[in-house]
Write a structure and sequence with these properties.
It is built from 71 helices and 59 strands. The strands form 16 sheets. An 8-stranded mixed sheet has the order 48-49-47-50-51-46-59-58, sandwiched between helices. It is α/β, with parallel strands linked by helices and 2000 residues long. Helix 33 runs antiparallel to helix 34 and helix 55 packs antiparallel against helix 65.
């Protein structure tokens, strides 16, 4: 039966109504009600419920296919509203309903029954049943039907509120939780027998912090995909042997990541995996989604994986079709339930196999049952299930009997066996694992032995003629499971790897890579190959890289790299013992690790020995130590039991302790003295409640003292904990107590000082006393004997950080001497008033003249006089302020306030006769006011401003006035700043709204008010249309480009009309608006920072000169440092080579020295962070710097390093970007920021849902997924806050109060939220975790200081590609200032400073495609002022850096014949999308959407080298590699005497060993063709370590390396190899201007000696561009961008608008530009653009004409309606006049009833009323009017109409009074309980006539009012007719020019080609002279002109 939306909707509504009723009545349902409830099937196929359905007007927005569902949806909302007590509850229900649209797809009952019946038939008895996603309970009903499991306990979960109510009503006897499955109580772990469900699926995150913070990657991954999470969580809930049977999406088995599947089969046996057909849910839920049935049986102690489980783990992707799958179904195709399969796409458009079953649901269920029975029969372990987990059986593997003889060498062997025998001879005593393809194979005796140990299958294979040999094997990725078992069994193992891919060669080449041996007490004699001893405990590790060639297990089951040497763990024999000659074939337990600890008691041994390392990872040092002791002690006990005949009972426990423990026992204690035992038993060592208060430093594992006993805490909660005593000796008790006292004192001291910022001398004195006493008695804390003991404490790492190493000794940390959580230094004297000023600002934050006078020994007047020009009196704060602070920022508002103060004070003292005392201050204030007015920016006039409709700063009243004018009705617009949301209302809608500004879509109409909201937000509605039906009858929706274009045109009409309307306003209005803008935006002044007075007292210039050649500090560096000091941070936007590193070091040190910051941090690139630290130490040799090397952030050292930062008062902490990302951030700040992002996502989701039917599932899913991910992150953070408080030092606790971020552009990908999700150029709104971590840190500092900044960004490319990056800079550094400007999100910022362009271009199918991007930026000077207020921008020329100039050369390369041919193919591909033209497979659905990006990428590869397109192409002497090699060789020879060096950059085809790449190709040519030594050519990718990288850089500076190749990321930063650089070769153009600048800066920087002395102080930058490729266009575009960005930074822009261009990395080029550039004729590009614009305008004109036609039709309809209404009114008036003429009335004017009934002889009202009531009940006129009587001469008729009542068809009768029209009262129904009212029905109908007339007259008046508006709309001409004509004329002229120019150009070209070749190859450089025709670029005016070499036929691109 096909899916019926209307019937499903009705069933759902009836079920919801019934459930609400039952809830109100508090009762269980009866049989009929249960049936009604069971029909509920959710809203998964009913997206219509997202539409508005509040009133009848909303029906116009509904699609034709869904309009039948409008009334039921209204009813649904009404039911919810009627049964809810408040609006909040209503909103919760509605939101829950909408969320279920994506997930509520219920399973057909026959499918569920097939599963439950199969399990029952297999013998599964269920006592405790779990349903984690129950829906209405289909699985519960099926499993428990017919009372098949009496007394069973059921727990179910359902997240949807309404579905949960229905579930509760259907199953009142079960426990139903209306919440997510993740909320299940932990007490249910291991409780249930069976968990079965159809679980939700999708990339929705789940809020389970325990999983999210797990160390296992599978659990962390599972929280990001809900279907994976349900599997792992359900396995936790079922008992050992219990079953999990879930229907899930194919994503579980098809997912590329194997970790979740590996974890599943690690913890459970695979019982069944069946793939269901896509039409399983078609009838029930209207969706075709692929799904699988997976059944698992929990088995946590399993020893190995089966072959089926190995297949289950492996996902596969078909190379040709790109269809994902699973190897299990390849092995078991019978487990796919289908009758038909074909390649198609899934619901998200990705390639997939679509399975169908022609038998429908019943056929699916039948085949499923058969396949399931077979799987259960084969794999279900009933014994394990019935054991209830008490003793899960583990079957021993069958031990095959080895054959007596395996004569291998006596027969002819296969080549493979010959190789095996050769290897085996070298390792006769080892099991040889032989890698063949994807498997490790074992032969002969090795196979027999391995099969016995591992339990793997033993088979035989042919070996030569008529002979066989034993064979066993396993998949290569399972080696980490099997290798430890072999080693543990005492076997030595040799691993033989393949040297070549067997798929690419016919013969195998093998080599022994590793030999693995078990640990032994002595080392065996070496074999032929070197042997590495690897110890293992046999536990499997599912890590990210389990390749055995790279990793092996150590003693603790941890993976370690094999290619690094391991320590040999050898037991040292006693002197009197003789060393054992041969190793024993087993791994003995070693006493060494336990020799430092006491033996455990039996009780402790039983507890810790039962713990499993995998399931119970050590949470701190104490547990780790105890578990180590337990395992070693158990092994020792087993060994002793085996060696001695004495029974276990005779071994005295005390004796064992004395025998094996070194130094931890009481001398003289004899264990056999029974009298001592009672003394031991007197102490109660059992766990007990902790009696003391829980302090902030108490955690699980904390060591404490209670009742004179030392113990540890567990189960720590807010007000309670459990204390477990430790059984230790008296001496150890004293040491522990002293340590505990010291540790707790430290915790109290640090916490007190951090919270109060007050020093505690008393606590510090106690801490010193306890520490000194401990060290005197027991030695330093970090001595080995103490460190191991201290690490047993959860706070032990904090305590060890109380010491630091200096000069080989342990010394006290700074906290012993002074507070480290805040600054305590006090300045007592200075030398100059300027230094006194700085000190005053530091101490008080203001100018304190009294304090300054005490510091500098000058009176206050003298100080003020000496600081004239540096300080100004500010009457607003009644104090002086520094110039850089007073004349800065918003000077307009400040001047106005000062002016008001002066006027107010002068007015106050005007009539005062004497001296008031304020006069001097008024004079000072006037001087200050003059300084402010002089500094005020030039006022921007109205004509200079660009106004965007929707700018948040413009009052909404202005928008309301404009829209009221435009819509000819009163419009009110409001703005919510918290939501960044506009709302609009019209008092009365009219034809302007309904017709002129209306777009009619297939599913809904967008009237003027809808488009107004889009215009305010600068968005365009997503309008869709239907192009047919899918297999389920659902609409196939695609974007409607015509409607979208029309909507965009009308929105632009609204937006563009705003400026015209403003222009027409009065001068006073304009002035007020301009004043408002200037006061808000054009009010910023950047101070002129002069840092020349700074002396930098601690700076060691001598060392800087000796090591780095720095003889003096640039003035620019001084100014920048002073700016940073005054502002408390900012942006140092200095070009490469201008000394940013020294600025950073000096600013950090000066801020620290002056006390402006307490603990600064520098964060730099990994490549140069060590150099930063070295420069800092050189500049300030006495500074205390903490530099994080690679070892500092290793897992073992990281916590210690964090504590060092926390506990010490360093001058600076320096680390890399990557290391900074590992610092834990403050949970409170994280939650605050993520909550803000979540709120924004929720608002956007609400806005999206309001679009109703036009939104796509993808749009909705994207926002919901992001919402769920953010919720998950927030809840994970909350979990950490609740459960891991103070466990690790976070950034906030470290005391860092300023961050210097070097190369800050690395953090530009910051999270943001926007409505413009489909607009190009905004970047990734998700951002990166690296950037988010930096935001957390900066917000932590800003929250502490209450100010903006708090950080310094240093970068020469702060704006790397687009001006939108400015917003993210401001978001980091200026959040408060953005809020003052009413900018709270990027949309608000874009509304003010950006203009969105929307191009509608024809694609190859002649369809119009919309492409939006923020291309134009307006109000740029104000934007620049805002940026420059906190920025110091300097170029190398500004600074005066002695560096070479750039000599840029565009080296033109004609295309090779292969490239010419491929260019034509590319053009064909761009036209028709046929990828086979390019020699590759057809485009997938996903790739089709990115066709132009693919075409752009191919064009880039083609221009670089044809071999990047296909290896089939051959080398060409004229390709780019050849040209580059020739140029490199020329420079090589030219500067050979000076050993000149060159850089070669390419981000495309970088160096990869074993693969063809452009680097290696050019090197080959240089070596073979030009004789350059190979060792002088290096690739930066070869340098794998910092040491090797530095060696290459040093070699290049020394001239030993002459050419260095690299990419922008690896060679563009952190490389100072410029000493001999003479040229930079740009093989291809990067995407960003900043990348070009970074590349060129490697050579163009200070210290380039060869260029300065021998190359005219110039460095040649050669740009290689292939003609008819994108090279020249991209280079030119980037130069234009770089020019704009530079002008913006300087604030030197002449224009107020910037055009950024339209090429970007993520979208490629548009079709028209691409075709024109590849053709090589830019006139064709002009023509393509004109044609595109003309086509767009003609389409718009057509849409306009259609709209006008609709308005004409509407006018005709209205005119007709007016005529009809007037005729109707006339007739009704005649009827009423006729009635009035004969009507009789009583004294009160009420009409007297004059009723007569034809079939009733009685005339009294009672009998006539009864007769009428009988007529109403019993008459059936079969829809015909039938006379029954009259009243006042008007006939009365009755008509019968069919209707449905309670599902039964019946009739209802209505009565009418007939005149000119039929009149009814009460809609024709008579009163059935009142005979008088029944009789008066007809008179009342006649009495209503005047009211009806009034309604018609009112309606007619409204229609008449709309007529002039419609006539105006019809008469309105299309406004772009002239523009279209002009464009057509321009196109015609261009056509003529192209036609006229083609022939002569061809002849000229032929003449050039026939010239001798030597004229072309001449080395002279040709410079094009600028001409009016040629000096235009493809984007904007070029700043300069390229030089070029080689072919003179290059065509410069024209202006677009």
């Amino acid at each position: 039966m096909a899916y019926n939306k209307l019937q499903t909707m009705r069933d759902n509504i009836n079920a919801i109504r019934c459930a609400f009723m039952l809830d109100v009545e508090k009762r269980a349902p009866d049989a009929i009600e249960r049936e009604v409830l069971r029909r509920y099937s959710g809203f998964g196929g009913l997206k219509c419920i997202l539409n508005d359905a509040n009133d009848l007007e909303d029906a116009a927005k509904w699609s034709k296919s869904d309009i039948d569902l409008f009334a039921p949806t209204v009813e649904l909302h009404r039911i919810i509203h009627d049964y809810c007590l408040d609006d909040r509850k209503v909103a919760d229900y509605v939101e829950s309903l909408k969320a279920s649209v994506l997930t509520a797809f219920y399973t057909p009952q026959p499918v569920v029954d097939a599963i439950s019946d199969a399990l029952k038939y297999s013998g599964v008895e269920v006592k405790r049943f779990l349903e984690p996603s129950a829906g209405q309970g289909a699985f519960i009903d099926s499993f428990l039907r017919n009372d098949r499991y009496p007394g069973s306990e059921v727990l179910s979960f359902e997240k949807d509120l309404i579905t949960g109510k229905i579930l509760q009503a259907l199953h009142p006897s079960t426990t139903v939780n209306i919440e997510g499955f993740e909320r299940i109580d932990p007490d249910f772990n291991g409780y249930f027998d069976v968990a079965a469900s159809n679980i939700p699926f999708g990339d929705f995150a789940v809020s389970d912090p325990k999983y999210a913070t797990s160390k296992e990657i599978a659990y962390r991954q599972a929280t990001k995909t809900i279907h994976n999470y349900f599997f792992l969580k359900a396995l936790d809930q079922v008992r050992e042997g219990g079953l999990v049977a879930f229907i899930a999406s194919q994503g579980v088995m098809n997912a590329a990541s194997p970790f979740v599947r590996m974890e599943l089969v690690k913890r459970a046996n695979l019982v069944a995996a069946l793939r269901l057909p896509n039409n399983t849910f078609s009838d029930n839920a209207g969706t075709d989604a692929g799904s699988d049935l997976i059944i698992l049986q929990k088995h946590t102690v399993k020893k190995a994986l089966s072959a089926d489980e190995e297949f289950f783990i492996q996902s596969v992707v078909d190379r040709d079709t790109k269809v994902p799958g699973n190897k299990f179904f390849q092995a078991f195709p019978q487990n796919v339930i289908c009758t038909e399969a074909k390649i198609g796409t899934d619901q998200y458009g990705k390639p997939a196999i679509v399975y169908k079953h022609e038998g429908g649901v019943d056929g699916i269920a039948e085949d499923l049952r058969k396949a399931l029975d077979e799987s259960l029969h084969l794999r279900l372990n009933l014994e394990l299930y019935n054991s209830n987990g008490i003793k899960p059986p583990t079957l021993d593997p069958i031990k095959p009997k080895p054959q007596q003889e395996t004569k291998v060498s006596s027969v002819a062997q296969t080549p493979l066996m010959k190789q095996y025998e050769e290897m085996k001879k070298k390792h006769p005593d080892a099991i040889l694992m032989f890698r063949i393809g994807d498997f490790y194979e074992l032969f002969g005796k090795d196979a027999v032995t391995a099969s016995e140990i591992l339990g793997i299958t033993l088979t035989r294979r042919a070996n030569g003629k008529d002979k066989f040999i034993e064979l066993a094997g396993f998949p290569h990725h399972a080696i980490d499971t099997y290798l430890p078992k072999l080693v543990r069994a005492g076997q030595r193992v040799a691993i033989c790897e393949q040297l070549e891919d067997p798929k690419l060669t016919k013969t195998f080449k093998q080599k022994v890579v590793e030999t693995v041996a078990p640990p032994a007490q002595t080392t065996a004699a070496p074999t032929v190959e070197p042997v590495k001893e690897i110890e293992t405990d046999g536990s499997p590790d599912y890590s990210d890289n389990p390749d055995p060639r790279l990793f092996a297990y150590n003693l603790f089951g941890e993976l370690e790299p094999r290619d690094t040497p391991k320590r040999q763990h050898r037991a040292v024999p006693k002197k009197e013992e003789k060393p054992v000659e041969k190793p024993k074939p087993w791994a003995e337990a070693k006493p060494l690790p336990t020799s430092k600890f006491r033996k455990l008691t039996e009780k402790e041994l039983e507890f810790y020995g039962s713990l499993n390392w995998d399931d119970n990872p050590p949470i701190n040092g104490f547990y780790e130590a105890m578990m180590s002791i337990a395992y070693a002690q158990l092994a020792e006990r087993d060994r002793l039991a085996a060696e001695t005949a004495v029974s276990t009972e005779t071994i005295v426990e005390g004796g064992t302790v004395i025998e094996k423990t070194e130094g931890d026992f009481i001398p003289g204690l004899q264990p056999k003295v029974s009298a001592q035992k009672p003394e031991t038993e007197e102490v109660d060592m059992l766990p007990r409640p902790f009696s003391d208060d829980i302090r902030f430093f108490h955690h699980n594992g904390s060591m404490v003292v209670q009742d004179g006993l030392v113990g540890f805490l567990s189960d720590v909660k807010k007000n309670s904990a459990t204390f477990t005593p430790l059984d230790i000796k008296p001496e150890q008790v004293k040491r522990a107590m002293l340590y505990i006292t010291m540790s707790e004192t430290y915790q109290q001291l640090y916490n007190y000082e951090a919270e109060t910022h007050e020093a505690s001398a008393e606590l510090r004195e106690h801490l010193n006393q306890y520490y000194d006493e401990f060290v005197e008695r027991y030695g330093n804390l970090n001595e080995k004997k103490n460190a191991k003991f201290i690490l047993m404490d959860a706070n032990g790492r904090d305590a060890l950080a109380l010491e630091r190493g200096e000069g080989g000794l342990f010394v006290k940390a700074d906290i012993f001497d002074h507070p480290v959580s805040f600054a305590v230094d006090e300045v007592t004297s200075v030398d100059t008033p300027m230094e006194a000023l700085t000190a005053s600002l530091n101490k008080y934050g203001v100018i304190n003249l009294e304090y300054m006078s005490s510091l500098v020994d000058m009176d206050e007047d003298a100080i003020v006089e000496s600081l004239a020009g540096h300080i100004y009196y500010n009457p607003l704060v009644s104090n002086y302020e520094i110039k850089d602070r007073f004349i800065a920022g918003n000077v307009v508002a400040k001047a106005e306030s000062v002016r008001d103060w002066i006027a107010r004070e002068e007015e106050r003292i005007k009539d005062f006769p004497g001296y008031d005392g304020v006069e001097p201050y008024i004079a000072l204030s006037k001087d200050s006011l003059k300084a402010l007015e002089d500094a005020r920016p030039r006022r921007i006039g109205f004509d200079e401003l660009d106004f965007n409709f929707g700018e948040r700063w413009i009052p909404t009243g202005i928008y309301s006035a404009y829209m009221s004018y435009l819509f000819h009705t009163d419009v009110k617009i409001l703005y919510s700043s918290s939501m960044d949301e506009y709302s609009a209302e019209a008092s009365r809608k009219n034809m302007t709204i309904w017709e002129e500004f209306c777009v009619k879509g297939h599913y809904r109409n967008y009237d003027g008010m809808n488009l107004l909201k889009h215009a305010l937000h600068n968005t365009v509605p997503e309008i869709t249309k239907c192009i047919g039906k899918d297999d389920n009858g659902n609409d196939i929706k695609v974007p409607d480009p015509v409607a979208i274009q029309l909507a965009d045109a009308k929105i632009n009409e609204i937006r563009n009309g705003f400026s015209e309307w403003l222009e027409a306003q009065s001068p006073e209005f304009k002035e007020r608006l301009v004043d408002l803008y200037n006061d808000k935006f054009n009010c910023f002044v950047r101070p002129q920072y002069d840092g020349s007075h700074q002396t930098f007292p601690d700076l060691n210039m001598k060392l800087l000169g000796d090591r780095y050649g720095i003889s003096s500090i640039y003035q620019s560096q001084k100014d920048c440092v002073w700016m940073l000091i005054q502002n408390g941070g900012g942006i140092a936007d200095h070009e490469v080579g201008t000394g940013k590193t020294l600025i950073m070091c000096m600013a950090a040190h000066e801020m620290k020295r002056l006390g402006l910051v307490h603990k600064p941090m520098i964060v730099g690139l990994k490549a140069n962070v060590a150099e930063i630290a070295m420069i800092y130490q050189t500049a300030y040799p006495n500074a205390r710097i903490l530099f994080a090397d690679e070892k500092s952030f290793m897992a073992d050292n990281r916590v210690r390093f964090f504590n060092q930062i926390k506990n010490n008062d360093y001058d600076c902490v320096i680390m890399s970007h990557d290391q900074f990302g590992k610092i834990p951030q403050s949970p409170e700040i994280q939650r605050q920021i993520l909550q803000a992002e979540l709120d924004a996502v929720k608002e956007n989701l609400d806005v999206l849902e309001q679009q109703g039917q036009d939104i796509t599932r993808g749009m909705l899913k994207g926002l919901i997924a992001r919402k769920m991910n953010l919720i998950s992150k927030i809840e994970t953070i909350q979990y950490k806050m609740d459960n891991e408080r103070d466990s690790v030092v976070d950034f906030k606790q470290m005391g860092i109060d300023h961050i210097f971020v070097d190369e800050s552009h690395q953090f530009k990908n910051l999270i943001f939220n926007t409505r413009h999700t489909r607009v190009a150029g905004l970047g990734n709104s998700e951002g990166s975790q690296r950037a988010l971590n930096l935001l957390y840190a900066i917000r932590t500092i800003q929250e502490r200081t209450g100010k903006d900044l708090g950080a310094t960004f240093l970068c020469g490319t702060t704006i790397s590609n687009s001006l939108t990056e400015l917003y993210l800079l401001f978001k980091y550094l200026r959040p408060n200032e953005l809020e003052r400007q009413d900018i709270r999100c990027i949309d608000a910022w874009l509304a003010i400073f950006a203009k969105k362009t929307t191009d509608f271009e024809f694609n190859v199918t002649n369809s119009i495609v919309q492409k939006d991007r923020f291309r134009y930026f307006i109000k740029v000077p104000e934007l620049a002022a805002f940026y420059n207020e906190i920025t110091d921008y300097r170029t190398a020329e500004d600074v005066g850096v002695d560096r070479p100039c750039k000599n840029e050369i565009l080296h033109n390369i004609p295309p090779t014949p292969q490239q010419e041919e491929f260019i034509h193919k590319l053009m064909e591909f761009a036209k028709n999308g046929d990828a086979t033209i390019l020699g590759r497979g057809p485009l997938s659905e996903t790739e089709k959407k990115a066709k132009m990006l693919i075409a752009t990428d191919y064009a880039r590869k083609m221009a670089m080298d044809m071999r990047l397109v296909s290896p089939a192409y051959e080398d060409d002497p004229n390709n780019k590699a050849s040209h580059c090699a020739r140029m490199i060789a020329e420079y090589y020879r030219k500067y050979d005497a000076q050993r000149g060096t060159q850089f070669v950059f390419s981000d495309l085809s970088t160096y990869k060993p074993g693969e063809w790449n452009i680097y290696s190709e050019i090197k080959r040519k240089l070596v073979e063709d030009y004789g350059i030594p190979a060792h002088e050519i290096r690739f930066i990718q070869e340098c794998k370590t910092q040491r090797s990288r530095k060696a290459v850089i040093d070699a290049m500076n020394a001239g030993e390396v002459r050419a260095l190749f690299g990419s922008t990321s690896m060679l563009g930063t952190g490389v100072n190899a410029q000493r001999r650089a003479v040229a930079v070769h740009e093989l291809e153009c990067p995407w960003r201007p900043s990348d070009l600048e970074q590349r060129e800066g490697r050579a163009i920087r200070a210290g380039n000696e060869v260029a300065k002395l021998y190359a005219d102080n110039k460095v040649d930058v050669i740009l290689y561009a292939v003609e008819k490729s994108l090279d020249s266009y991209k280079f030119n575009l980037l130069h234009c961008k770089a020019t704009f960005i530079s002008q913006l930074k300087r604030g030197a822009l002449g224009a107020r608008t910037i055009d950024e261009g339209a090429l970007d990395e993520h979208n490629g080029m548009n079709f028209s530009e691409y075709m024109a550039i590849l053709s090589g004729n830019t006139d064709l590009l002009e023509k393509a653009k004109l044609e595109k614009r003309i086509a767009s305008l003609e389409s718009e004109r057509k849409s306009f004409g259609k709209g006008r036609g609709d308005s004409e039709y509407r006018l005709q309809t209205i005119t007709h309606d007016i005529a009809n209404n007037e005729a109707t009114i006339g007739r009704m008036k005649a009827d009423y006049a006729r009635y009035e003429a004969v009507a009789q009335r009583d004294s009160e004017g009420n009409p007297i009833n004059n009723l007569s009934i034809d079939t009733c002889s009685l005339t009294d009202e009672k009998n006539m009323g009864i007769h009428l009531q009988k007529l109403a009940l019993n008459t059936d006129t079969h829809r015909q009017y039938q006379r029954i009587g009259e009243v006042y001469g008007f006939p009365i008729s009755i008509i019968s109409e069919p209707t449905l009542v309670d599902g039964h068809e019946t009739v209802q009768n209505r009565f009418v009074v007939e005149g000119e029209y039929k009149y009814k009262y009460n809609n024709g129904f008579i009163a059935m309980s009142d005979t008088h009212a029944a009789c008066m029905n007809f008179v009342n109908a006649l009495e209503k006539i005047p009211g009806i007339i009034a309604q018609y007259e009112e309606r007619t008046a409204k229609l008449k009012a709309d007529v002039p508006l419609l006539e105006a709309i019809i008469a309105k001409p299309w406004g772009k007719e002239d523009e279209l004509k002009a464009l057509k004329s321009e196109l015609a002229a261009l056509d003529r020019r192209i036609t006229a120019a083609l022939a002569p150009k061809k002849e000229e070209h032929d003449e050039i080609e026939n010239k001798p070749t030597d004229t072309v190859e001449n080395n002279t450089t040709i410079v094009d002279a600028p001409t009016p025709a040629d000096n235009k670029t493809m984007v904007a005016e070029s700043a300069g002109y390229y030089r070029r070499t080689s072919s003179p036929s290059f065509i410069m691109p024209r202006h677009l």
